[in-house]
Write a structure and sequence with these properties.
GO molecular function: nucleotide binding; oxidoreductase activity
Strand content: 15-25%
Protein name: Oxidoreductase
Number of domains: 2
Structural class: alpha/beta
Number of helices: 11
Number of strands: 15
Domain Gfo/Idh/MocA-like oxidoreductase N-terminal: 5-120
Largest sheet: 9 strands, mixed
Shape: globular
CATH topology of the largest domain: Dihydrodipicolinate Reductase, domain 2
Helix content: 25-40%
Organism: Allosphingosinicella deserti
Domain Gfo/Idh/MocA-like oxidoreductase C-terminal: 134-342
Distance between the termini: 39 Å
Order of helices and strands: EHEHEHEHEHEHEHHEEEEEHEEHHE
Length: 342
């Protein structure tokens, strides 16, 4: 691919507006050419002059579209991804990759059959806190990890009348893909999962709580989310044979793009809240650990390079399917009340 990568975006909700369009705009060699939306005026507030089309079929009929970003409601991800692959496009799918494991596998198989690249937007690999944790694990700062605890809690006691609150799988298919993908990126495939997925808020139309235990041979990974956590600052608690690292706060990139800032500048993705490292040989003196900068731009730059044949897919279909396998096993575990072997 020697020309600019033409991008078509399906959907202009939070995902399209905050996680996709701004990054396409700042990625060298990428050009956003058209957006599917029922509200052209909303799109053009942010993207003056942007071509807005009313349907996926209309987008796929546009000339100059190489990559299609699927940021539609979850239950349409598979339909839209398969349509784009059928039209010969490369595809980026927002999380969840699909709402069922069978659909995730169908997408991966279709991409292979068509000779097109499909990737999943597991952007939380490029959060400041996660990049910091990977650096520490790679350096052996914590020793051998024995317990990994990852939280994504919120205080939303009253369910909002939005489709996202009623999405299939609830929080487990909304926030769970982030936490599962991070665990797999660090530790690989677990041996088994035990999950409690339920609804705690009165009137909530879908699960709003999950607590999942991933069993590995020598350690455990705990993935937790609740929308009834008034104190929801804890993000990571990681314990190893040499020490512990506790991190509060959430990566700042989403808030920045929601506020209308383009992902540019040397200060992009800086996290001012350091994690605290407690060394086993000096447990009385926790030490602040400076954060790596968060940078979702790295995903987009890697994707552009891969589409040009100059690098690897940053999140290959196999990784997206692996996440879906754990999510599927988690739902079966919660339903059956038992550990599910992977």
């Amino acid at each position: 691919m020697t020309h600019d990568i033409g991008v078509g975006l399906i959907g202009y909700g939070l995902g399209g507006r905050a996680f996709h369009a701004p990054y396409v705009r700042v990625t060298p060699g990428m050009t956003l050419r058209a957006v599917v939306s029922r509200d052209p005026a909303k799109v053009r507030v942010d993207l003056p002059g942007m071509r807005v089309v009313p349907s996926v079929d209309a987008l796929l009929a546009e000339s100059g579209i190489d990559l299609v970003i699927v940021s539609s409601p979850d239950d349409l991800h598979a339909e839209h991804a398969l349509a784009a692959l059928g039209a010969g496009k490369h595809v980026l799918i927002d999380k969840p990759f699909a709402t069922t494991l069978a659909d995730a596998r169908r997408i991966a198989e279709a991409a292979e059959a068509k000779g097109r690249m499909v990737t999943a937007f597991h952007n939380r690999r490029w959060d400041a806190d996660f990049r910091t944790l990977r650096r520490m694990i790679d350096a052996g700062t914590l020793g051998t990890i024995v317990q990994f605890e990852s939280h994504f809690d919120r205080w939303r006691p009253i369910p909002a009348p939005l489709w996202k609150e009623a999405r299939q799988g609830g929080s487990w298919l909304d926030l769970g893909p982030h936490l599962v993908d991070q665990a797999l990126a660090l530790f690989g495939r677990p041996l088994a999962i035990t999950a409690d997925i339920t609804t705690l808020r009165a009137g909530a139309p879908a699960p709003d709580y999950f607590h999942a235990l991933l069993r590995y041979e020598q350690h455990r990974a705990i993935l937790h989310s609740s929308k009834l956590a008034a104190q929801h600052g804890l993000r990571f608690a990681v314990h190893g044979t040499q020490g512990s690292w506790i991190k509060h706060g959430l990566d700042a990139q989403e808030a920045a793009t929601v506020a209308g800032r383009l992902p540019e500048g040397a200060d992009w993705g800086l996290d001012p809240v350091p994690g605290l490292l407690t060394r086993g040989d000096d447990p009385s003196t926790p030490v602040p650990v400076a954060n790596e900068p968060g940078d979702y731009r790295l995903f987009w730059q890697a994707l552009a390079a891969a589409l040009r044949g100059d690098g690897a897919n940053p999140v290959p279909a196999s990784a997206a399917v692996a996440v879906m396998e754990v999510l599927d096993a988690g739902m079966r575990s919660a339903l059956e009340g038992r550990e599910i072997t992977l």
